[in-house]
Each structure stands twice: as structure tokens, then as C-alpha cells.
Design goal:
This protein is mostly helical. It has helices at 2-6, 8-30, 32-40, 44-72, 78-93, 100-108, 114-147, 157-172, 174-181, 186-189, 195-203, 206-232, 239-255, 266-276, 282-313.
Length: 314
């Protein structure tokens, strides 16, 4: 039974079913009429601004990935970086916890050591996770303190501030972490799988940590601003409320196990929960989140699928 459920095809079908169930439940809760009316009354300029930011977000994504690639191979072109980013994105979309992203990026660069690609992809993921904890976690903390004060104690802010500060310090000064790696036994350091960590030791320094932290922070800022414009396309909402709720949505989506297909349904459910607390109509939260999914997930996945076909031919 366990082997049956763990089969990739079965897991994918189950995720699709869960996504459909979640979306159906939301449509029942919100009422389709309200969703349609919200779209009909949407502000076109705000929608255009939201999509423009989605494009800008992809540009930052590609530039960020190219920056990491050039740490291990300076000959990498922008075209190659674009291809490997979108191919990896598509492969990650169809696999649990986006593990397929590693394979997609490796396949896009057959002439580069596989362990080096894995190593910098791990760095990519770690910085994204770090900012999710700091920015998303901060959003959740502010949300709970404001809307569920019975579960909040002012003392909590001190350990949380310490944790967030420690995370920022670690990722701004990665060479301090590398000093810890050097004390590992030679047996471990000599293992062939250690190559993916070795490449981080060799090419990733404090200046790279600062640059990647800046690019990741910029990326998060663009995503939150995109959420602001898409939400305001349907209903006026204060910037601070959008930032708090959107950051909380991103955090919840990251910490919940990948139970749905491309997080479809999970993202929208979280958005409705958080945004309703700041007096945003459920249909508005649903529509803004659905557009975010389309612009930031579905379109890049489709682009990657086209590039996969091209990659197979070559």
C-alpha cells in the first residue's frame, strides 16, 4: 500500500485531486457570482502593473540564477541561464518538494560538474528559505499579535528577533559557517558526495552572500508589491495590510507539506484566511491569489515546458 501511494504518478493524481477539492471548497465558500463580479469591476491599470511586476520578478529570478551559475562557470551565457532556470522550474513543478528542479538544471548544463550544479542550487534554496523565515515569519508574528492577541505574549518578540537576526547574520557572512565545515572528519570531506559542499567552500564568499541576500530581498519585495497591485485592482487595501498578509501567505505555503499540485488551492485558501482579517472580501483575496499563481507559476512552467522540448531536440 505504501509503495502504491509513493508512486510518482499516484502522488501526482492525489495532489491534483486535493487541489480540485480545495478550489471547489473555496468556490462554495465564496460564491462564484462574487468572484465574477469582482473580475468585471477590476481596475485594468492595477492589473497591468501587477503583471508588469510579475515579468520583473522573472527577470530578477533569471539574473539571480545566472549570478550563481557564473560562480562555477564564467562562460555561462544569459540564454543558458534562462534555459536552465525555466527548465528547472518546470521540472520542479511536477515533482514533490520541487526536487526535480535539481535534475532540470543539471540536464540544462551537461558540460558542468553535476555536483557543482547541485551545490549552487542548494545555496539558492537556502537563501530563499532564509528570507521566507525572516520576512514571512515576521508577517505571521505581526498578524497573530494584531488579530489573535490571546495567543501572543510580548516576551515572544525577543527570541524571535534573536532567531531572525541570527539567520540574517549567517547568510550575510557564510564564511563563518564554512569554518565549521572544515572541522568535519576527513572521511566525510573525502566522500564524492561532499563535492557539492566543496564547491560552496571554494567559490561562495561573504561578498557573494551579501549579493545573493540583496537579490533575494529584492525579489521578495517585488512579490509583495505585485500582491499589493493585484489586490488593489479589486478593492482598495493599505500597503501595510497587504505586506503583512502576503508575507504570511508565502510563509504558510512554504511550511505546509506539498499536498496539492503546484500549491494550487493552498495558496488561495491561505490568502482568503489572512486577507479576510483586514476586511478584504474573500472573492478579492481569491482572485488576487489566483492571478499570482497564474503569473508566477503557470506561465513560467509553460515557458519551461517549451524549452524542455527544445532541449530534447538538441
Amino acid at each position: 500500500m505504501n509503495s502504491f501511494l509513493s508512486h510518482p504518478g499516484v502522488a501526482t493524481v492525489l495532489k491534483i485531486i486535493i487541489s480540485i477539492v480545495l478550489i471547489a471548497a473555496l468556490l462554495y465558500y465564496i460564491d462564484i457570482t462574487a468572484i465574477v463580479e469582482s473580475f468585471q469591476n477590476a481596475d485594468a491599470l492595477y492589473l497591468m502593473a501587477g503583471f508588469a511586476l510579475a515579468v520583473f520578478q522573472l527577470i530578477i529570478h533569471v539574473y539571480r540564477w545566472r549570478y550563481l551559475l557564473r560562480l562555477i562557470s564564467r562562460e555561462i551565457s544569459t540564454t543558458e541561464a534562462i534555459t536552465s532556470f525555466f527548465v528547472g522550474f518546470t521540472a520542479g513543478f511536477f515533482t514533490p518538494a520541487q526536487v526535480g528542479e535539481f535534475a532540470g538544471r543539471i540536464a540544462s548544463h551537461p558540460n558542468i560538474n553535476k555536483s557543482h550544479i547541485v551545490g549552487i542550487t542548494v545555496v539558492d534554496k537556502l537563501y530563499w528559505a532564509a528570507l521566507t523565515i525572516v520576512i514571512g515569519g515576521s508577517g505571521v508574528v505581526v498578524f497573530i499579535a494584531n488579530y489573535f492577541p490571546e495567543y501572543w505574549n510580548p516576551f515572544y518578540q525577543y527570541p524571535m528577533t534573536f532567531v531572525f537576526g541570527l539567520i540574517i547574520a549567517v547568510f550575510l557572512y557564510p564564511e563563518k559557517v564554512k569554518e565549521i565545515l572544515k572541522v568535519l572528519p576527513e572521511k566525510i570531506r573525502g566522500h564524492r558526495f561532499y563535492e557539492m559542499i566543496q564547491v560552496i567552500e571554494d567559490v561562495f564568499h561573504n561578498k557573494n552572500g551579501w549579493m545573493l541576500f540583496f537579490l533575494t530581498s529584492l525579489l521578495y519585495g517585488v512579490i509583495l508589491l505585485e500582491y499589493y497591485f493585484l489586490t488593489n485592482a479589486f478593492q482598495p487595501v493599505a500597503l501595510n495590510d497587504v505586506v503583512m498578509c502576503a508575507a504570511s501567505v508565502l510563509f504558510v505555503k512554504a511550511v505546509i507539506l506539498p499536498i496539492s499540485f503546484g500549491d494550487l488551492g493552498v495558496r488561495e485558501s491561505a490568502a482568503v484566511f489572512f486577507f479576510e482579517r483586514v476586511d478584504v472580501i474573500a472573492a478579492v483575496a481569491f482572485n488576487a491569489s489566483l492571478i499570482m499563481s497564474f503569473a508566477n507559476v503557470i506561465i513560467p512552467t509553460a515557458i519551461g515546458a517549451l524549452l524542455v522540448t527544445k532541449l530534447k531536440r538538441t
